[in-house]
Amino acid sequence: MTGNNNVVPLITEQQIRERITVLAKEIAAGAGKDIMVVSLLKGSFMFTADLIRSLHGAGVKTQVDFMTLSSYGKGTTSSGTITVNRDLSEDVSGKMVLIVDDILESGRTIDFARKLVMGCGAKDVKVAVLLEKPGKLAVEVTADFIGFTIEDKFVVGYGLDYANHYRELPFVGVVVSSDAA
Ligand code: IMP
Ligand code: MG
């Protein structure tokens, strides 16, 4: 029921913490000191919470907004269609926007979000992702700031889910048993 016995850690809590501290410095240097963060729900809520605190430590002021996008698909693969379930509520026009997501896989989610934010008149858009699975891009898109590059395994924890479970885990891991939830 509660267990994380079924999830084998891939990236530890400490590794995540250390990487985010460095990432925040990279963002401070590459995106400036005044940023509108657009966090893509649900998967990036934990990453966003830690990242903006590290950005504060790196001397960056942030405003935060959230957007919920979903890609219709079955199981653990996403399909091509992105739907906006919750739109931006802040005005991003003229602002330096940092889109924050949990993982870059096909790139469709980021590509969609980037175009949407640019269409709202943002001055510039950069992208930060906690994780990247290389070689899986279906559209041409890159993240400006990447936490970790991982192999092609379905991962959970630290905000990422399997059927909305495991988001609470403080680490990123691989599910090894399906009777876990
Ligand atoms: P993309 O649009 O294919 O780049 O997919 C990105 C979205 O798919 C992420 O925001 C996640 O919600 C989900 N996703 C992709 N890979 C994983 C995974 O390994 N674990 C959990 N969610 C994933
Ligand atoms: Mg997601």
Could you explain how this protein is built, in words?
This protein is an alpha/beta fold. Helices cover 24% and strands 32% of the residues. The chain has 3 helices and 9 strands, in the order βαβαβββαββββ. It has helices at 13-31, 45-57, 108-119, and strands at 7-11, 34-41, 61-71, 82-86, 96-104, 124-132, 145-149, 155-156, 172-175. The strands form 2 sheets. The protein has a 6-stranded mixed sheet, sandwiched between helices. The protein has a 3-stranded antiparallel sheet with strand order 1-9-8, covered by helices on one side. β2 (34-41), α2 and β3 (61-71) form a beta-alpha-beta unit. α1 (13-31) packs across α2. It starts with 6 loop residues before the first strand and ends in a 6-residue tail after the last strand. The model has no long low-confidence stretch (mean pLDDT 93). The structure holds inosinic acid and magnesium ion. Magnesium ion (MG) binds next to loops. The site of inosinic acid (IMP) has 16 residues, from β5, α3 and β8.
What is the strand and helix layout of this fold?
Layout: E1 7-11, H1 13-31, E2 34-41, H2 45-57, E3 61-71, E4 82-86, E5 96-104, H3 108-119, E6 124-132, E7 145-149, E8 155-156, E9 172-175
Helix pairs in contact: 1-2
The structure holds inosinic acid and magnesium ion.
Residues 40, 43, 102 line the site of magnesium ion.
Keywords:
181 residues, alpha/beta, six-stranded mixed sheet, three-stranded antiparallel sheet, 32% strand, binds inosinic acid, binds magnesium ion
